Amino acid sequence: MRDIDLKTLRLFVAVCEHGNMARAAQDEHIEPSAISKRIAQLESDLGVPLFTRSRRGVQPTAGGSALLEHARSVLFTMERIASDVAAFGGGLKGSVSVCASASAIAEALLDDIASFMRLPAHQNIRVNVEEAVSTELVRMVRDGVVSLGICWDNVGLEGLEHRPYRRDRLAVAVHRGHPLASRASVEFAETFGYEHVGLPPSTAVHRLLRRAAARAGHTISYRAVVSNFDAAFRVVAANLGISVIPQEVGEAYARLLDVRIVPLADAWAERRFVVCFRALDTLQPAAQRMVEHLAEHARG
Question: I need a labelling partner for 27 at 20 to 30 A (CA). Which of 85, 115, 143, 146 fits?
Fold first, then answer.
């Protein structure tokens, strides 16, 4: 198969978005016949039809839809590459890509990164932050997709270097009228009699709670499984269940919603986070500085 050039991918995406080759050609300042020729060559190279054609226009086939997803990703990556490299010509001192768990982002990470960027020596450093579950972000660091990962230390970090970051403690979010609301702390085993609001099974918190319940010979009864902390707190505020969440995140929501935050007394409820990377001496100077900055905040 011949290499697919970016111009052809860009035209393919334009046709998909317009559903019409003539309109795509107008936007791309090219003749419709030239687009048609490129699409036909692309179909020949890939060995599959990419569009179904009708009097109303064109629609991507199943193969075309699969290519569209990849094409958008490739074009976005190429734009990022061009932007990041061109920025060095304007005086940018570096670019740091960070992937972090939901807990790290919801707690102190964004504040720590903001304090890093506010330093005069770092004013020309660009930072990109995205969220992923711990196992996925560790894979992204290993594969070189991102420079730094911030996650709970109870994941497989084999082959990576890491530095300590912050700690947190898990707590139980309950409605203010719940029987546990007046407690100063609670053992996790005391929550088994209540329905929980949980995060997806892929998250580190879900796996931790499942193992803790199994050690106690119990299973957790979930009234609802939601995608993020915000949704969990809203279900708790509706008095439909309780939820195990990071205490620091919970205290912020408690000021806004009708919930109470009760710390878990179990020893395993205290978690340690790390900054992980492939090798410190291979990181760009900007990324090395961020590792030092985050480790310094952890010590503080």
Answer: 85
